[in-house]
Amino acid sequence: TPAKRAVVVRGDGRRFTHGVALSPDGKYVYVSSATDVWRWPYARGQRSPVDDARVEHVVRNIPGGGHNTRTLVFDVRGRLYVSVGSRGNVDADSSRARVVRFAVDVGATLPADFTRDGVVFADGLRNEVGLAFDEQQRLYGVQNGIDNLHRADLGGDIHHDHPAEEVNLLSGVGAAPRADTDFHGYPYCWSVGVQGLEHGDVRAAPGEQFAHERTMDDGVHDDAWCRARANVAPPVVVMQAHTAPLDIELYAAASVARRWLDVDAHAAYIALHGSWNRDVPVGYAVVRAELDA
């Protein structure tokens, strides 16, 4: 209700997007725009406005335009992760479709420059809007797939049910390292939707990787390249195309949700925005996905 709302940070021309996060120690609130990240001193539970005179510029020169959500999340070591989506539907490369990590603790030189100072943590992610760490400090993300998908040899216009929206395991922080790559395919590869794909002699299961028609004949990024685990890390869960996942929350066995809601030991709750370019609308829901422990 309006009586319970409190404005803690005002934009004052900074043109915030949706990214907001508290530092692990609870002493700062971080907020993003399409091109920058700022922080203010903050006390847990604070309802009064922060002191704008004490604002710190944390990250600058994030590529603007295109997908402009800039999700923020911290690991247990206090490192900041920023997700940046693609400029267009299918870019020429993945240079701005990735999750980038920054050191922002005491002693770090701020503001960090996005390209010069950021560490690419996971790459080939078209628009990984939702991010969340699990109890083992593995970072999961939910991806919005490409629109208007076409492959002449697979039936032409197949965009209604392909590509799948994805839950991706990006990498581990303090957990065992991945055995495969941290490149997730975009813009060269896409995942078959939840219905599977049948056309001619092709029988493909949900999540199977195919090449995008723009690059499938470039001499490198064909279907075989996309299916090689050394090249592309496939999603851990696939969802209906165009449901547009915007957030993910994780619950494990020790959580309140496990004890009271009888959820499985490692489950994800995913908020779906819903479709805009599908004849039969889909999404507009919160769904649960089972994850491997």
Characterization of the model:
Helix content is 5%, strand content 35%. It is globular, with a radius of gyration of 20 Å. The model has no long low-confidence stretch (mean pLDDT 90). The chain has 293 residues and is mostly beta strands. The strands form 7 sheets. A 5-stranded mixed sheet has the order 1-2-3-4-8. A 4-stranded antiparallel sheet has the order 5-6-7-9. It has a 4-stranded antiparallel sheet with strand order 10-11-14-19, with no helix packed on it.
In terms of quaternary structure, the protein is single chain
Strand tally, please? 22
Series of secondary-structure elements, N-terminal to C-terminal: EEEEEEEEHEEEEEEEEEEHEEHEE
The helix/strand class is mainly beta
Biggest sheet architecture: 5 strands, mixed
Q: What helical percentage do the residues reach?
A: under 10%
State Rg.
20 Å
Describe the structure using short key phrases.
single chain; 293 residues; mainly beta; 4-stranded antiparallel beta sheet; 3 helices; 22 strands; 5% helix; globular
Write the layout of secondary structure elements.
Layout lengths: L15 E7 L5 E6 L3 E5 L14 E5 L11 E3 L5 E5 L13 E5 L9 E2 H4 L1 E5 L4 E6 L4 E6 L6 E2 L4 E2 L7 E8 L16 E3 L5 E3 L2 E3 L4 E3 L11 H5 L9 E3 L5 E8 L3 H6 L4 E7 L12 E6 L3
Parallel strand pairs: 4-8
Antiparallel strand pairs: 1-2, 2-3, 3-4, 5-6, 6-7, 7-9, 10-11, 11-14, 12-13, 14-19, 15-18, 16-17, 20-21, 21-22
Summarize the structure.
The protein is mainly β.
